[in-house]
Structures are given as structure tokens and as C-alpha cells.
Amino acid sequence: MTLLILLFPAIVPVLIGIHYFLRSADMTKTPRIAVSIAGPQISFLYLISLAIGLRGHGNSGLAQAFAVALIVPCIFVLYTLLAYRGPKKIHALQTLNALALIDTYFLGTMAITDNWL
């Protein structure tokens, strides 16, 4: 279970982004990338926060910047919900992105601040 919690935000959002990218072939390049970028952003922020924390460079001053950085994927999730032209059932995958974002916030903040439970 612990391994699932640790790997979930690193893998699942990227797979969701790839799925959106492949399913939005009818869109031009920029909107297509914008529709599919939220998942990879979540994974990137998660992995960067863990890298900072596990290398011993975490401090509490980074917490606010990390929280602000997590707003960007939220904006792209909203854009995806509005701009994606394909079947709307695919939006159920955004639930997994939301769970990954919560996990990223929780574990990433602990790593970034070097304040583990």
C-alpha cells in the first residue's frame, strides 16, 4: 500500500496525459498540449519535491512556492474540462489526477519542508 501511495502521483498522471494527448488528435498542437499537460505537471512537481527533500535541501521557505506551483496543474485541469472536444466520459480520469494532486501536496510538502510525519 505504501508503495502505491509513493508511485501513484509519479506514474498515473503521466498516463492520463498521454491518453488525453492521443484522444485529442483533431485539435491543433497548442490546445492539444494544453489539454494533456496537467498530468505530467503533477508528476513533475511530485518528483522534483521528492528529489529536493531526499537530497536534504528541503526547508520551510519552499512550502509557499510549492503550494503556488500546484495551482498551475489545477488551471490546466479546468482548461481540459472546458476545451476537450472528445467523449466527456474521459473526464472521469480527472478524479485520479485530483487524487494524485492531493497526494503530491501532502507528500511533496513534507519533502519540500523536510518535515516528515
Notes on the protein architecture:
The longest helix has 22 residues, at 2-23. 32% of the residues are buried. The protein has 117 residues and is mainly alpha-helical. The chain is built from six helices and no strands. Helix 1 (2-23) packs antiparallel against helix 2, helix 1 runs antiparallel to helix 3 (38-54) and helix 3 (38-54) runs parallel beside helix 6 (93-113). The radius of gyration is 15 Å and the shape is elongated. The chain has one domain (2-113). Helices cover 75% and strands 0% of the residues.
The fraction of residues assigned to DSSP E strands is under 5%
Query: Roughly how many Å is the radius of gyration?
Result: 15 Å
Question: Runs with pLDDT <50, length 5+?
Answer: none
Tell me the total number of β-strands. Answer: 0
Coarse shape: elongated
**Main sheet summary:** none
State the distance separating the first and last CA atoms: 17 Å
Mean pLDDT: 92
Structural class: mainly alpha
Secondary-structure topology with pairs:
Elements: H1 2-23, H2 29-36, H3 38-54, H4 63-69, H5 71-83, H6 93-113
Give the key terms.
117 residues; elongated; single chain; 6 helices; mainly alpha
